[in-house]
Amino acid sequence: MRTTTIFLMTLALVAGGCDKQPVDTATPEPAPAEPVAAVAKPIPDGFFVLTPSITVQGADAAIEFYVKAFGAHKVFALPGPDGKTMHAEIKIGDSVIMIDEENLEQGGKSPTTIGGSPATLMIYAASPDEAFAAAVAAGATVQMPLEDQFWGDRYGTLVDPFGHKWAVASRLEELTPEQMNQRAEIAMGAPTSKTKPKKAKKNAPPAWKKIAGTPATSPVPAQYHTVTPAYVIHDAAAAIEFYKAAFGAVENDRMVSNGKIMHAELSFGDSLLMISDEAPEMGSKSARALGGSPVALMFYTPDVDGVFAKATAAGAKPAMPVTDMFWGDRFSMVNGPDGFGWAVATHKEDLTPAQISERAKKAMPAS
């Protein structure tokens, strides 16, 4: 069990009273009276600096869908008092994704409630056509058909039955910044002369393909994981400055058109986040425009106190102060000026499920 799992469950249990403890149908392991915990890595094994957390209506059905659509592996699921999953962790390739059941009382809203999502989860796959077809067969709706794109990827987008947006891609070519700019100008219709462009022949390759890149050596670009989040933001330029000040992010790339950031990439330690300015006329809406986000990010760091202080100084609003939590993390939460929620934590102790259960009992209010 990890930070967001226990934190959200704690909120639900404290709000509802001790009678709403998670249902455990398995034979419980004997728990030591005073658990002895080992010193842990600040970023738990199997996690990266950034981990997406999504909220859905119907967590069990969502898990089943992601297994069928994306070949996800269910790491574990935590049931609520009704036996249905309240929180789960799945793994797609090398990437963990946290899934929470919608809980309006605690502010956890799904895309269905919000009316969309300002985030996309991008999956890099070795066989993108097969992966895309599997997702459609499982019930996803095609938003953008899978096609070769000017930036060097074979890429398409989907919306799952729970309202979350996904992209499936594979890297085909590596491009220099100059080649990328040349292709972008052609693909976006930037005029190169006063002569009216000739109509493309049927089934002819896109004009930008005349700018040839270098064949990619891997379907997953360097620095990317299997799943990488992408955010649509009301003011992407301001968000970049916030990420630098709060989390020490490094800007790797920025593509600007008509004063708007069309695409930018930032490194957060071993993780990447892609962002862009909103374009409501094209259906690209920010968390501000939608009134919230069903996607948040978990930021693991060796210095949670320092990052929390930097984040609040940079404009984030505290949602939970830095606190040593019973599950073994030193943990905090902020709401960023980007419109998204951020959990910030340092993993302090490795505990067994039995030890966590024993600590949870002591942490819950008496009935």
Q: In a nutshell, what does this entry contain?
A:
This protein is of the alpha+beta class and 367 residues long.
Attribute tags:
367 residues, alpha+beta, 2,3-Dihydroxybiphenyl 1,2-Dioxygenase, domain 1, 8-stranded mixed β-sheet, 34% strand, globular
Describe the structure in your own words:
With 367 residues, the protein is α+β, with helices and mostly antiparallel strands. The protein has a single domain, classed as 2,3-Dihydroxybiphenyl 1,2-Dioxygenase, domain 1 (Roll), CATH 3.10.180.10. The chain is built from nine helices and 20 strands. The strands form four sheets. Strands 3-4-5-2-16-19-18-17 form an eight-stranded mixed beta sheet, with helices on both faces. Strands 7-8-9-6-12-15-14-13 form an eight-stranded mixed beta sheet, covered by helices on one side. The longest helix is centred in the N-terminal third of the chain and has 14 residues, at 3-16. The two termini are 25 Å apart. Mean pLDDT is 86; it is low at 1-7, 9-28, 30-35 and 191-197.
Mean pLDDT: 86
Q: What's the β-strand tally?
A: 20
User: Helix tally?
Assistant: 9
Count of separate structural domains = 1
Provide the CATH topology.
Answer: 2,3-Dihydroxybiphenyl 1,2-Dioxygenase, domain 1
Structural class: alpha+beta
CATH architecture title: Roll
Distance between the termini: 25 Å
- Which stretches are poorly predicted, pLDDT < 50 over at least 5 residues? 1-7, 9-28, 30-35, 191-197
User: Order of strands across the widest beta sheet?
Assistant: 3-4-5-2-16-19-18-17
**How helical, in percent, are the residues?**
10-25%
In CATH terms, the superfamily is: 2,3-Dihydroxybiphenyl 1,2-Dioxygenase, domain 1
Whole-angstrom Rg = 22 Å
Beta content? 25-35%
> What's the SSE pattern?
HEEHEEEHEHEEEEHEEHEEEHEHEEEEH
Tell the overall outline.
globular
Largest sheet: 8 strands, mixed
